[in-house]
Specification:
With 104 residues, the chain is mainly alpha-helical. 55% of the residues lie in helices and 4% in strands. It has helices at residues 8-44, 48-59, 87-94, and strands at 69-70, 78-79.
Length: 104
């Protein structure tokens, strides 16, 4: 298949087919994982009600992300680039300082 020889319509169809195949592959992966998990739970004689609270405890632990940006005025003020922008960053941007100059 030579993509350079395909029409825009053919490329759009191919793109949709790939997206559908990706979703199906992801669903298959999840289904297989679930089957393995339930099989292991049966072997260990545990129920989802026993396991799920422990999984949720581990899932809810936040991982501190490394800083991507630092304030030029105070190096203790950092931002990982995730979540809401801190006030110091909003002020710096309003004063014309570019985000790139504050990158770590």
């Amino acid at each position: 298949m030579n993509l350079n020889e395909m029409t825009v319509e053919e490329l759009d169809t191919l793109e949709k087919d790939i997206a559908m195949a990706r979703v199906q592959a992801e669903n298959t992966k999840i289904t297989n994982a679930m089957e393995q998990i339930f099989s292991l739970m049966d072997k260990l004689h545990v129920t989802p009600d026993q396991v799920l609270p422990e999984i949720m405890k581990r899932k809810n632990k936040r991982v501190k992300l490394p800083p991507k940006y630092v304030s030029p005025d105070n190096i203790k003020q950092t931002w990982s680039g995730a979540g809401r922008k801190p006030n110091w960053l909003i002020e710096q941007l309003a004063n014309g300082v570019s985000l790139e100059t504050m990158a770590v």
